[in-house]
Amino acid sequence: MVKFSKKLEYSLIALRHISISEDKITRVRDISEKYNIPHDLLAKIMQKLKKECILESVQGINGGYRLLKKLSEIPLFDLYSFVESSTSIVECMHDDASDCYVSDNCTIKDPLAKMQDEFENILKTKMVSDFV
């Protein structure tokens, strides 16, 4: 079963929160406290989103984050890729499948590869705005 990680869930929650606060600058602590998200983890996620030019940070005592892009312009695939280490639905679909002992004789490799492609296509057609 494909499952969104907490990091992806927290990213979506934070982006939604920032988007409904319009152009106001939003602090990580405010989001963290409101949704009971671990502050340090959320801060790292927000830094990644800044690095990927989804958010901009404002420094200073009243600093925080605001959106650089509309959520309707961000494919879920991109957010997933920024936050997760991989979009693979199974371990053997990672770039390094050397841990798989049955790879040479695997009878489900082709159907899994097809499912992987379908999953990625869904992520590419859905926008972050569809989830917030």
Shape: elongated
Q: How many runs of DSSP E, i.e. beta strands? A: 2
Low-pLDDT stretches are: none
CATH superfamily: Winged helix-like DNA-binding domain superfamily/Winged helix DNA-binding domain
Q: Class, according to the CATH hierarchy?
A: Mainly Alpha
What sequence of helices (H) and strands (E) makes up the elements?
HHHEEHH
Give the overall average pLDDT: 87
Which strand order do you get reading across the main beta sheet? 1-2
Tell me what the CATH architecture is.
Orthogonal Bundle
Question: What's the alpha carbon Rg, rounded to whole Å?
Answer: 17 Å
- Spatial gap, N to C terminus: 22 Å
CATH topology: Arc Repressor Mutant, subunit A
Highlighted features:
mainly alpha; 46% helix; 2 strands; 132 residues; two-stranded antiparallel ribbon; 5 helices; Arc Repressor Mutant, subunit A; single chain
Structure in words:
This protein has 132 residues and is mostly helical. It has one domain (6-131): Orthogonal Bundle (Arc Repressor Mutant, subunit A). Helices cover 46% and strands 6% of the residues. It has five helices and two strands. The chain has helices at 6-20, 28-35, 39-51, 76-83, 109-125, and strands at 55-58, 64-67. A two-stranded antiparallel ribbon has the order 1-2. β1 (55-58) and β2 (64-67) form a beta hairpin.
